[in-house]
Amino acid sequence: MSRFFSSKHKNLEPYTPGEQPKDNQYIKLNTNESPYPPSKKAVKCALEAAKRTQLYPDPECSELSTLMARKLGVDREQVLMTNGSDEILNFAFIAFCDNDHPAVFPDISYGFYKVFAEVNSVPYEEIPLNEDFTINVDDYVGIGKNIFIANPNAPTGIALSLCDIEKIVSSNPDNVVVIDEAYVDFGAESAVKLVHKYDNLLVTQTFSKSRSMAGARLGFGVGSKELIADMNTIKYSTNPYNINAMTMAAGIGCLSDEKYTTKNCREIERVRKYTAKELKKLGFELTESMTNFVFAKHPDHDGEKIYSRLKCNGILVRHFDKEKIADYNRITIGTKKQMTTLIETLKKILEEC
Predict the structure, then answer these.
(1) Where would a tag sit more exposed on the chain, N or C end, judged by fewer CB atoms within 10 A?
(2) pLDDT band for position 9 (50/70/90)?
């Protein structure tokens, strides 16, 4: 670091994104991207918008926000579109957390929660998961702190029920509860309907997974009008034009083609079931995933070695160094063909070990 880097960030450990290698042609199963291209309508709208990029984009994302609100069954003022769901999560840490309102989140979850807390100088607590990687709901009941929960969780893939979510939200009326639903479209139940009942609930989602727009960077938050107004204050104090014109247009096109999104989600669920079944035949142990990935370990083989051997064979998966999950690998669900190749490669690796 330079001699000018602020001392307040000297111990900051930045988030480590998944590998995006350029040295080889890999089957990429490491960053939970969709194996399917974006909707043709999304691409067409983005290309049209590209012709007008000499102009600033609409800072209010009026058309896109209206379409999203209509889809979710909420008012336009209850939606905030952002540059990926990471931005809305960061806005929440900035807007609602401070020394008097610390944050809590699971010790095994999306790694950015800890980074957002530290970069914004927010006191935080990481609450351990149960031994089976499930969240103990009672750990969050009446805790009196701002809560961040990925549901389904990552990298475990395990989902809480809507009843459990409501129990947490209702028992912390004076604190904000953020439910990060990046993977909700693959079989879990969304908590969006609860925003009509609880003014302390913020639900975040993304276009990166189910809508095949990871490269476009588009996400959103849903909550009470007051919560959204607070985060708009943060947005307009940092980057009013947070979503570029082509991404905004692609989002509009995507929302006009929901059949395509739904079809892809159901196919990913089908291939996930197939993958889990085949992995279990090979002796792998898996969590109950409700996402577009599986979380798997083999009782007789080191997780990092499996990751390395797969990489040598042209397949990327995600391995984490954290002690509790070091035996596991997170494997994105690709096409049926890609997953069949994964299974056949694993068979060879296990035979050689």
Answers:
(1) N
(2) confident
Chain centroid to Cα 323, Å, comes to 22
Question: Which backbone phi and psi does 93 adopt, to 5 degrees?
Answer: -65, -40
CATH superfamily of 21-37+259-352: Aspartate Aminotransferase, domain 1 (3.90.1150.10)
Backbone CA torsion sign across 166, 171, 173, 174: negative
Q: In the predicted model, is pLDDT for residue 4 greater than 80?
A: no
Which residue, chain included where needed, has tokens 């701002």? 146
Q: Is the peptide bond before 152 cis (omega within 30 degrees of 0)?
A: yes
CB 178 within 8 A of CB 195: no
**Domain boundary assignment for the chain:** 21-37+259-352, 40-256
Residue 88 to residue 228: CA distance in whole angstroms: 10
Cα separation, 288 vs 269, in Å, equals 12
The pair of structure tokens assigned to 141 is: 């009941």
What gap in Å lies between CA 90 and CA 78, rounded to an integer?
18
**Number of helical H runs and strand E runs in the chain:** 10, 13
Tens of pLDDT, residue by residue over 317-349, are 999 999 999 999 999 999 999 999 999 999 999
**Mean pLDDT, all residues of the chain:** 96
**CATH tag, 40-256:** 3.40.640.10
The yes-or-no verdict on residue 234 having pLDDT over 90 is: yes
CA distances from 338 to 26, 275, 334 (A): 10, 10, 6
Greatest C-alpha distance within the chain = 59
**d(C-alpha 303, C-alpha 326), whole Å:** 6
Q: Looking at this protein, which amino acid is placed at residue 184? A: V
- Do 195 and 203 meet the contact criterion of CB atoms below 8 Å apart? yes
pTM: 0.95
d(C-alpha 132, C-alpha 320), whole Å: 17
Q: Decide if 120 contacts 92 (C-beta within 8 A).
A: no
